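hey so u asked for the seq, here:
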Amino acid sequence: MNDLIYNLAQGWERWISSFLPAWLVTLIDDLLIVVALLLLVILFVLAFIWLERKLVARLQDRTGPNRVGPYGLFQPIADTLKLLTKEVITPDGADKPVYNLAPVLVVFGPLMGLGVLPLGVHLIGADLNIGIFFVMALGSVSEIAVLMAGWSSNNKYALLGAFRAVAQLISYEVPMVLAVLAVVLMAGSMSMQSIVKAQNPLMYLIVMPTAFVVYFLSANAEMARTPFDLLEAESELIAGYHIEYSGMKFALFYLAEYINLFLLGGVATTLFLGGWGGPFVDKVPLLGTFYFLVKDLLMVAFWMWIRGTFPRFRIDHMLSFAWKVLVPVGVVLVLLTGFAVWVTDNYWIQLAILLPGNLVTLWIALELLGRDAKRAGERDKRLALA
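ran it, structure tokens below
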């Protein structure tokens, strides 16, 4: 009973293998994993939609959903039914094969990423030895889908949104990969389970706090959420690359955003927050899944708080922040981590190098940002007076 999930899986495996060939057992197991992940995704997406609407409403002194069900709990279900029954319209002049394929591909990447996310001690779809590389590589699939959606819609606003997607998403992938690379160097593995196990006794949030900040900001931009939502800026581009999509096709873009929220929060949990690690997990492994979901939920709530708090960036400021701030900081962190790993195998000496190095790097970056903001303010003031 200490590891209920693992024992149930082993019992199921022994029972089904007793009367079915091995290839069919593998196929059935894979299908069950896919169905379980899809059900988990749908459940969490509905929960996140309700949570975000309630949380942002409280931040803005509103009530949020309160009509359908107690505390508005059934409002996401009502919204889903509405989207499913809406008419799907394809604009004249659209490249129909590409236009119809884009919503499918935009969901494909995040769903595949969930397959290597370690939700518990033994609860993982596939423990690949290149798990984190696999997740990072899947990000390019969503970018291609966004570009396909904007290009095929035969709409200038959608096309501009797609071009912004290329600029923003690729720009912020670079610092995100650098932050992940620092963790991989420290853990000595790209396996997600191995990275979790390497965070003992201290999670990497404590060892490499600046790497966590770089990842957190880059992930926010990769999800195109406020203040990095220039891809679908309503005040400028109406709805950006998915302006011509309606009904279920639009719902797939909406679904992809919240799957990404869960996935990137889970990656942050795995890389920096110790994943499923926590007290008494060695005695009761099922607790690991609870710890993972709580940490992931905290990450998601933090991103929601940012969405309800900060205004949108200007596109030039946003790209400058990626290339002039996050990328140099990421390069410094990779070099610092590589140096610490090269110098010694002793964990505590590595910690004595990495923690002060991370804090000094963060302080220098904030100092330079403050000076640049001050100069920009003075320049704007002079222009206003002129």
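Residues 85-377 form one domain. DSSP finds 14 helices and no strands in the chain.
lmk if thats what u needed
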